[in-house]
Design goal:
535 residues; Rossmann fold; single chain; 4 domains; four-stranded parallel sheet; three-stranded parallel sheet; alpha/beta; 12 strands
Amino acid sequence: MFETQLSHINTNYKNKYPPLGLIKISAYHKMLGDDVTFFKGKSKELREEKWDRIYVTTLFSFYWKITIETIEFYKRSVYNTNNFKVGGIMASLLSEEIYKETRIKSIVGLLDKPRMLDEDNDIIVDLVVPDYDIIDEIDYNYPTNNAYFAYMTRGCVNKCSFCAVPRLEPEYKHCISIKEQIVEIDKKYGQKKNLLLLDNNVLASNQFPQIIEEIKTIGFYKGAKYQETIKFNLLIERLRAGENSRKILDKLSVLLKRQPAKIQSEKVRNEYLQILEQYVLLNNLTMEKIFYAKDKLAPFFEKYRNKAYSLRYVDFNQGIDPRFIDEQKMELLSELSIKPLRIALDSTEPSYIEKYKNAIKLAAKYGIKDLSNYVLFSWNNDTPDDFYNRLELNIELNEELGIKIYSFPMKYIPVTDKNRNEYIGKHWNWKYFRAIQKVLLVTRGVVMPEKSFFDAAFGKDKNEFHKIMLMPEKYIIERVRHAKSGDTDRWWDELTSLSSKDYETAVQIIKSNNFKNIEEKTSNEKIVKLMEHYS
């Protein structure tokens, strides 16, 4: 069979999860007998080769610049530019603009129909078992690589204006079974510790009880445990099954060379090394050699593997919608090994807030105490006070119910914006954005559940919150040092001692977050002196 050489490119921005679309496309091509290379970012070596086909995945539209640069970097490395494929979120939302910029046509939406990549087969790419092997081919370490990645529903019944899902997945699919996929993954790659579900609104499904039952059946019931698979045995079985022998042998070769570091006994380590030498396994590993020696080697991998059991968790990573929560659904969720339970806190509407509070109380009632949420801000009519109120609400619920809600603030960016720093909500300003960013820089992006932490980070009331938001960035980041030195008090005294009119002028300058050429903005010497704190 002719082996097509394919390159899969993941643009070089930080992301927690492997690109599911790309690893499914990789599996699809390996089913056809093609040779696949996966890379994250730009490689001069790969660019200098000629490929039969190149796939580039895209994420959010605000990665426009780096994504376009990546496309331009590789697009002359295919024999025919019709075989340069670009897909993913940005490619679906901005396909016409990408074409104008690069002359490359995008794949829009999901690969959920036959013949979307090739006209001569009916394989539906979106349904194939992902190729977990290619994740190991790059130096980049995805933080969640020991997990199954899947969808059990597609689309969303809501049409929120801030969300791209209605355009990317316009049809809501109520249930997609993943049971067979999990069996295949276990057989080929070994069991994964966690289950990461990327559904956009799983609670809207009219088959939600069946979804929960299937999740339990595949091993993610409450209290489920995980033990590491013996990778050596898996690779031997894959060789036996007739997979691409060279790539499997390469993986085995790496495994054989790493194993001595896991053997604590010098005597046993020497025995192992003698076997490697006796069967000439360290150089030019072949199927004949490894099959001849496998029974001698297997006990070393069995004895020195990690035998500890750890709890398994399922994570509805996109968050669940509190508007669809009721007692029955929360009771069903409590049957899973779920951690954390992510409940969205996007809206400031009173009815939404009440449903959110009800969802949190139901979670506590059914013993789910590790919770998390995304707090969208600077969207629609949201104000800084609304943002503070929602964070404070979580602190109050933590204290009332004895739970822990970890909040992750997310600044709203329109789904087609090419620059994450251009949009500003009508009630917001650039200084407040920067201040929240600096607070989260110290807290690593998360608002911790303890009240003392919240009070210190965001203020014990709204007056203190606004004071922190106006504070010079260096005073926010190194709060304690500048408070002890008296810098913070001097800044605050200078600001609050201004007349009402001058105070407003100073605050407007601060909120613009532009402290250059202050003398051109005001002739007031007190305000000019105040702005020295920001330089």
